[in-house]
Amino acid sequence: MNTLLQKAIEGNRLSPAEALNLLKNAPWTQVAEAANSMRHRMNPGNKVGYTAFRIVNYTNVCEVTCSFCSFCRPAKSPEAYVLSLDEIRQKTLEAKAKGADQIFLQGGVNKDIPLSYYTDVLKMLTQELGVKVRGFSPVELVRIAEFNGITLDQLLDVLKEAGLSSVPGAGAEILSDRMRQMLSPKKLPAQQWCDTLVACHKKGLPGSANIVFGSVETPEEIIEHLEYVRKTQDAAHGFKSFVVWTFQPQTDKFPIRHVRGDEYLKLLALSRLYLDNIPHIEVSLLGMGLSLGELGLHCGADDINSIVIEENVLENHGLTSIEEAEAFIKNAGFTPYRRSLNFD
Fold it and tell me: How many domains does the chain have?
């Protein structure tokens, strides 16, 4: 086997230059084989995790206006909305009836929403309805703090007190400032994205990280992204998992290319090898579909994340019930186990 792959399997950290070499030159099957070995070393046994949650997009108003997003609306649009507490309650009750016990709050950067709205939603969800809540991307958190004239640390204390238990690593896409200028100049620069999540993790609000590729990013920028994520994890150890996504065609304002299955699986596998400090790798059934997702479980991933109840931003190619998730995992040759968004 490639000596760099053997190095990773033996528990020695790959350098960015070594990872770039593997990304550019190593056969994807060798990278996948090595990642599968590392997956079983880090997570012994034949188990694959899944979770059940509902995504609640509490608003579609957003001033960030990412070039690849078709979901957001300007505040004065007739299609703009902010969900009421009653609407969020109803969505949560529907999700609980399907077996979900967690809510994933996602929205936009909407300066007209008062801080009390967020705390009231969190208290309702956790205290009245008894569900756990993951919510608010780094850019949402930074802007909410700015809109309310408080520090990020103060905001995190308020949200945690109200019931927030974890945060997503959303809005990462590609952590290269060149790419971020193309994606959305109003989003956080790469280092600020990392610093925001370090602050969250140090407050006891863990979460996940991801990469979204399939545009005009370079191999060097992909490795730069992985290095940002690894350094962030070294600083605060709050990432429970890492997910590899591809850009989905939503607008004509951002160039998207076709990502072959072997290309996706190679990056998934390389992520397992490079991110030696993140315990779990999730395969994206939502974006990549079931067939490629099954292969991903033999290429370094040990989690499928799904089921997803309601998805308004991306087309859902994944699973929509607990029974489907467990059957999928069993058919792939593994033993399913249900976990929380925080891998509790």
Answer: 1
pLDDT level of residue 314 (50, 70, 90 thresholds): very low
Residues ≥6 apart with Cβ < 8 Å to 314: 248, 286, 287
Q: Is the dihedral of CA 330, 334, 336, 339 positive or negative?
A: negative
- What's the residue count for the chain? 344
30 falls within a domain? yes
List, for residues 278-301, the tens digit of each pLDDT value: 999 999 888 788 999 999 999 999
| Burial letters 197-212, b for 16+ CB under 10 A, else e | bbbbbebebbbbbbbb
CB 199 within 8 A of CB 156: yes
> 60: which residues sit within 8 A by CB, 6+ positions away?
71, 72, 73, 79, 80, 81, 107, 108, 312
For residue 95, give the CATH number of its domain: 3.20.20.70
pLDDT in tens, 88-139: 999 999 999 988 899 999 888 889 999 999 999 999 999 999 999 999 999 9
